[in-house]
Write a structure and sequence with these properties.
six-stranded antiparallel β-sheet, about 25% strand, single chain, about 25% helix, about 180 residues, alpha+beta, 4 helices, Alpha-Beta Plaits, two-stranded antiparallel sheet
Length: about 180
């Protein structure tokens, strides 16, 4: 299946696992979702800041909280250090549609996937989608590795401490992370 032409500036069509630009159901109540942002190519901090703005521009979505920016070494990957952050969203987009929009934003920033764990211009991961548990071939929520990564838990705890168990933070305390 291929995506339709994108009406968002700078986004080009791409093969999509879900139909791109699914309509937001009328009257759909918003859900709180958390998205991890990361980049380690180019001006990573500027890219993450642009990504916050791009998330706020998604239909039926507003950014309700932004963590600070953090520098971390790559995990299971090579390349330069990452700049990471987490955004809280209030969104009426269904989870698969939100995921598709995140992939479109990555592509707009030049994200390529030449091999697993390649350095990236932008990485957007859907961490949590309300209280939903989703396990499909395209999407797993909660994110399956989020509780093992300081670069996710530290910024998430900054904006949503109730979503991060203290024992999870303690378990990643040995992973270097520096607030910028």
């Amino acid at each position: 299946m291929t995506g339709a032409a994108s009406p968002l500036p700078g986004l080009s069509p791409r093969p999509s696992p879900v139909p791109f630009l699914l309509p937001v159901p009328a009257g759909r109540p918003p859900v709180t979702a958390y998205v991890a942002l990361g980049a380690n190519l180019g001006d990573a901090a500027a890219t993450v800041r642009r990504a916050f703005d791009a998330l706020a521009a998604l239909p039926g979505t507003r950014v309700t909280a932004r963590s600070g920016l953090y520098r971390t070494a790559p995990v299971d990957a090579g390349g330069p250090d990452f700049v990471n952050a987490v955004a809280a969203l209030s969104t009426a987009l269904p989870a698969p549609c939100l995921l598709d929009r995140l992939l479109q934003l990555e592509q707009a920033e030049g994200r390529q996937r030449p091999y697993r764990h390649a350095p990236r211009t932008l990485d957007l991961d859907l961490l949590l989608y309300g209280s939903a548990r989703i396990d499909s071939p395209l999407l797993t929520v909660p994110h399956p590795r989020m509780m093992a990564r300081a670069f996710v838990l530290v910024p998430l705890a900054e904006i949503a401490p109730q979503r991060v168990p203290p024992e999870a933070l303690a378990a990643v305390a040995g992973q270097p992370i520096v607030r910028l």
